[in-house]
Design a protein that fits this description.
The structure holds two protein chains of two kinds. Chain A is mostly beta strands. Chain A is globular and about 35 Å long. In chain A, 33% of the residues are buried. Chain B has no helices and eleven strands. In chain B, strands 2, 4, 5, 6, 9, 10 and 11 form a seven-stranded mixed β-sheet that branches. A four-stranded antiparallel β-sheet of chain B has the order 1-3-8-7, with no helix packed on it. The radius of gyration of chain B is 14 Å and the shape is globular. Chain B starts with a strand and ends with a strand. Classes of the chains: A mainly beta, B mainly beta. Chains A and B meet through strand 4, strand 5, strand 9 and strand 10 of A and strand 5 and strand 9 of B.
Chain lengths: 106, 117
């Protein structure tokens, strides 16, 4: 199985900050990676697919980069509604695997 | 519009089984595989498995092999996930979802399963 190592597990930030979250795959997954945002009590929402493509409806302050084994989610200017948990998911092979998650807090 | 509507909350005793349903609408049911994901209280997302309503192909996460059965009913556009031999650590919200490698990504509202004696 492909292991996804996500860091940090949590971070403290302020409105307007630039925030970066990383995921590393245990083996190459091309660009078969998505980034999800989840707020308490809600279903996850995908922000990025194919490592760097912005999901329809997702704000343009979210961007993704990377290929192979190293990936990054960047929030260019953190907004109040962005305080949430974020997860990467590899869909290169079965079983799919999520990163452990990053909680973005004030 | 695409909707995935899941069955309601369940309370089960240890050792019992639970079946969660996910009724799809707004698209051709056989177009996308159904993925099941769960989230225990205060924990991260855990991928459980996937099934194709078109072919019946499926993949289960190793943590659940032998305990989970995923099925689909194309006549009602409904997917089912049955988890057996429940323990307290199966207390979680269970989600169904559809996605592709592109822009499609839709989730059900989640079903809370509580395992308690």
């Amino acid at each position: 199985d492909i292991q996804m190592t996500q860091s940090p597990s949590s971070l403290s930030a302020s409105v307007g900050d630039r925030v970066t979250i990383t995921c590393r795959a245990s083996q190459g997954i091309r660009n078969d990676l998505g980034w999800y945002q989840q707020k308490p009590g809600k279903a996850p929402k995908r922000l990025i697919y194919a490592a760097s493509s912005l999901q329809s409806g997702a704000p343009s302050r979210f961007s993704g980069s990377g290929s192979g084994t190293g990936f990054t989610l960047t929030i260019s200017s953190l907004q109040p509604e962005d305080f949430a948990a974020y997860y990467c998911l590899q869909y290169n092979s079965f079983p799919r695997t999520f990163g452990q998650g990053t909680k973005v807090e004030v | 519009q695409v909707q995935l509507v899941q069955s309601g909350a369940e309370v089960k005793k240890p050792g019992a089984s639970v079946r969660v349903s996910c009724r799809a609408s707004g698209y051709t049911f056989t177009t996308y595989g159904i993925t099941w994901v769960r989230q225990a209280p205060g924990r991260g997302l855990e991928w459980m498995g996937w099934i194709s309503p078109y072919s019946g192909d499926r993949s289960d996460a190793q943590n659940f092999q032998g305990r989970v059965t995923m099925t689909t009913d194309t006549s009602t556009s409904t997917a089912y996930m049955e988890l057996r031999s429940l323990g307290s650590d199966d207390t979680a919200i269970y989600f169904c979802s559809i996605s592709d490698g592109g822009s499609v990504d839709h989730w059900g509202q989640g079903t809370l399963v509580t395992v308690s004696s």
